[in-house]
Amino acid sequence: MKLLDKYIFKRFLTTFVFVVGLLVLIIVTIDFTEKNEKFVRNGVEGDLIFDYYLSFIPWIANLIAPITIFIASVLVTSTMAAKTEIVAILAGGVSFRRMMLPFFAASVLISAGTFYANGWWIPNSNKFRIQFEIEYLKKPFYFNERDIHFKVGEDLYLYLQRYNNKSNTGYKATLEKIENHQMKEKLTAKKMVWVDSIGKWRFKDFHRREVTSFGEKYCTGKELDSLLNLNPEDFKNKYQLQEAMNLDELGEYVALLKDRGADDIAIYQNEIYIRYMTPFTAVILTLMGVAVAAEKNTRGGTGFKIALGFVIAFVFIIMFVLVKAIAEAGTMNPLLAIWIPNIVGTIVTFLLYKAVPK
Questions:
Q1: Span 183-228, pLDDT tens digits
Q2: Within 13 Å of residue 231, how many CA atoms lie on the same side as its CB?
Q3: Which has the least CB within 10 A, 78, 173, 227, 293?
Q4: Helix (H) or strand (E) holding 219
Q5: Where are the beta strands (DSSP E) in 83-214?
Q6: Which residues pair with 226 in a beta bridge?
Q7: How many Cβ atoms are within 10 Å of 218's Cβ, its own excluded?
Q8: pTM, whole model, 2 decimals?
């Protein structure tokens, strides 16, 4: 690594850390101000609040990392341009492409760190953060979905008219066993209750019909215990559940949802796509920031470049929110939709690079 590379690399990383630290400090201050009343009302102890923000800070820092890396690249490059350092570098025989290399290397380093953090470390700390918010900041959760369907076994399908998550009770339950598109067994009950001591569901006031080669068997009873691939955790509050899962857990959960035929798979599948997409976003935005701020004689000076950088960052955020909604709605291939901001960003970066005087 040459002296110039070390200079840009170090300056870019320190600026990135400074920008992240500054924005996190502002966000935490605003967040605490907004939530302090709820902390007092719910009697939250100080050490719990401290632990909450210990898990909140890495999450918010990682969330804003792609944008802060863009702002940092604009700040560093515009300052170098204002001091005529870029002109001197180019006059010294270093190509503009070569000058971008330390920016690229630093962005790859940051991206690798954020990918690991977002993939495994932060989801583990999010488990406490999200549970804290559910317990102290959110309203009590009531499972209010109706006409619920689950695949609870290889050939078993469960229907519930409604479910009470406080008493762990499902009402008007129907359990069907279907083989080769034919119903082999059907169990209906007024309700099914989770029995924690044995880890099973107890069907109450049930009617059971079994189809055999000799005809049908029919019986009734007061109680019947059954082990199903379902437990009360499946009916709990799913507030930001995807953010509390690492990549391994997300993959397993998506496979489970697919096996059950659930209709909310897109949320968790898209989260996997986003976590793999975000590191590339950081690299693209870094190079875009360099291309935006490299020209010295821009009307408005450094302030204009910084303002332009914030505008581009805002547009990028809006685009990401829109394509995420499109991906979850299923109106477009989710993987393609999630990658649209990166594709557009790559094209814009290339056009800006071509337009920079070299």
A1: 889 999 999 999 999 999 999 999 999 987 777 888 999 999 999 9
A2: 7
A3: 227
A4: strand 215-226
A5: 146-151, 156-164, 169-179, 182-195, 200-212
A6: 201
A7: 10
A8: 0.84
Instruction: Write the DSSP string, 28-71.
Output: HHHHHHHHHHHHHHTT--HHHHHHHHHHHHHHHHHHTHHHHHHH
How is 325-345 classified by DSSP, letter by letter?
A: HHHHHTSS-HHHHHHHHHHHH
CB atoms within 10 A of CB 205: 13
Please give the order of strands across the beta sheet that includes 169-179.
146-151, 156-164, 169-179, 182-195, 200-212, 215-226
Cβ neighbours, 10 Å, residue 316: 22
Reduced to 3 states (helix: H, G, I; strand: E, B; else coil), residue 262 is: coil
86, 346 in Cβ contact below 8 A? no
The size of the chain, in residues, is 358
CB 255 within 8 A of CB 265: no
